[in-house]
Write a sequence for this structure.
């Protein structure tokens, strides 16, 4: 395909004042183009509208200004069929078993075939064979994230949006999940072209370890400040790559850009809190 | 061991103490047994009604009224709660009506129900239905608005339309609210039926209480009260509590 898979042009999202809350501009003047098959990490200080960008690309939210085009079609608050979304919070249905949770997108999409078998295969692939009959609350946080991964990969979305999916996990579990995500992404469940991933995080190390490219956003309202190419070899191991010299150089360089924004965001929040 | 046994028995001891105080009060002349009766007399009457089967048609009558009103009220409340939820505009229009319905002491509508639907089954079912409808509607509507946004968004991204969302997300999430509303409303449902029976009935627990009052037989009132309480407790214990446990087994306790 020629041209980028995802293109945001001059995108702004404003939340009007309502119910005693002041109006709020989450993002403004966002220009971002993403080629198919790339793994993009988006970093920025808290409150810079990272999640808002993902919501708009997914079609859960619509921009107040500008345009978002995905695969040649304009997205304006309408859900696309080829998007997977991993949320920061748990989004599994607590009243359904692990197996039923993974089968659900197949049911929703009316996908033909043996749902039970397909779901079991994906559960085995994320290391959860034997847990099919459990309910989400019986699993650890890391295991629930694996279920969510399986439930997303199971319907083969072309685009994968991830909103700080591992931020609630402890460091060890988190590194394991990051490695598993990379492996899933690279092997891609046997599909032809690899998925395009937009991974939002506030953790710069995670961003560099995972992505082909790191996009740094400014403090509120969020804009694209700079983009950094991550030329580290794949396949990667997130535990080892942190000791790579190129990783450390890159980290220093990107942190230079990010630090300013974090400081600004902090100052902004202080003025908000202290009037 | 002794202490733990005592702790377990204390609630029963409190009841026993109250009964004893009641009995003593009537014996010492502090209260007139002609108007208050005595625990022993009430117990004897309860036993007699049970043995002779006198209570049976009255129990069946009240249970039928409550059962019909309860089920129809719950279903209607669910339907309207979902309607309000999916059509917020309609909810806005009806808001004053719902507030009024909730604020009004609904038992006061009993005379109206009797006028409109007569002294047979109809008036009681209508009042019970109204009471249960209101509780279910309010509880479920609030519950639906509180269904976790992330879960809904996730299901939508995965391809769920409105029908699939209702079936797989909203209904199961709402079930907890419906059952808790049912537990709250069961007592009020019986109150509504009995108040309605007090005003005009040919049978039922309320009729017994009313008959006890007009014939100055306080033991009839007390025995009627006893049967009503036991039935409410039994329904809650045998049907609603297990239903709530079953419906929320996935919850973390």
């Amino acid at each position: 395909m020629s041209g980028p898979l995802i293109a945001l042009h001059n995108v702004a999202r404003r939340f009007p004042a309502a119910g005693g809350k002041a109006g709020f501009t989450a993002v403004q003047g966002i220009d971002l183009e993403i080629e198919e098959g790339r793994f993009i990490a988006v970093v920025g200080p808290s409150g810079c509208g990272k999640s808002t960008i993902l919501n708009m690309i997914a079609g859960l939210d619509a921009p107040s200004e500008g345009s978002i085009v995905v695969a040649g079609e304009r997205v304006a608050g309408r859900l696309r069929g080829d998007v997977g979304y991993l949320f920061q919070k748990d989004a599994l249905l607590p009243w359904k078993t692990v197996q039923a949770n993974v089968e659900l997108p197949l049911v929703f999409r009316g996908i033909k075939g043996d749902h039970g078998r397909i779901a079991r295969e994906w559960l085995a692939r994320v290391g959860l064979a034997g847990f099919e009959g459990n309910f989400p609350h019986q699993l650890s946080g890391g295991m629930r994230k694996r279920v969510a991964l399986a439930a997303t990969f199971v319907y083969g979305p072309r685009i994968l949006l991830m909103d700080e999916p591992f931020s609630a996990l402890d460091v060890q579990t988190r590194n394991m999940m990051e490695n598993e995500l990379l492996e899933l992404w690279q092997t891609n469940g046997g599909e032809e072209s690899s998925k395009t991933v937009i991974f939002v995080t506030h953790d710069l190390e995670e961003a560099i370890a995972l992505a082909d490219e790191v996009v740094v956003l400014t403090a509120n309202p969020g804009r694209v400040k700079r983009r950094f190419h991550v030329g580290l070899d794949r396949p990667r191991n997130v535990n080892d790559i942190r000791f790579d010299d190129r990783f450390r150089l890159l980290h220093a360089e990107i942190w230079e850009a990010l630090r300013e924004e974090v400081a600004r965001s902090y100052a902004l929040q202080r003025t908000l809190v202290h009037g | 061991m002794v202490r733990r046994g005592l702790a377990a028995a204390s609630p029963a001891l409190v009841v026993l103490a109250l009964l004893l105080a009641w009995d003593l009060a009537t014996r010492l002349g502090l209260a007139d047994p002609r108007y208050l009766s005595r625990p022993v007399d009430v117990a004897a009457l309860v036993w007699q009604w049970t043995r002779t089967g006198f209570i049976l048609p009255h129990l069946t009558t009240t249970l039928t009224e409550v059962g019909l009103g309860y089920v129809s009220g719950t279903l209607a409340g669910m339907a309207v709660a979902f309607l309000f939820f999916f059509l917020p505009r309609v909810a806005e229009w009806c808001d004053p009506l719902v507030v009024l319905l909730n604020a009004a002491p609904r038992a006061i509508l009993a005379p109206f129900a009797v006028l409109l639907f007569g002294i047979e089954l109809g008036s009681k079912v209508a009042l019970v239905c109204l009471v249960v409808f209101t509780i279910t509607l309010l509880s479920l509507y609030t519950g639906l608005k509180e269904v976790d946004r992330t879960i809904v968004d996730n299901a939508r991204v995965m391809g769920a339309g409105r029908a699939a969302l209702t079936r797989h997300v909203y209904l199961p999430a709402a079930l907890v609210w419906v059952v808790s509303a049912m537990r709250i409303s069961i007592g009020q449902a019986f109150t509504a039926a009995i108040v309605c029976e007090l005003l005009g009935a040919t049978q039922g627990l309320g009729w017994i209480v009313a008959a006890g009052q007009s014939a100055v037989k306080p033991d009839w009132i007390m025995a009627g009260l006893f049967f009503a309480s036991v039935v409410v407790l039994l329904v809650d214990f045998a049907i609603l509590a297990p239903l709530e446990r079953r419906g929320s087994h996935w919850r973390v306790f």
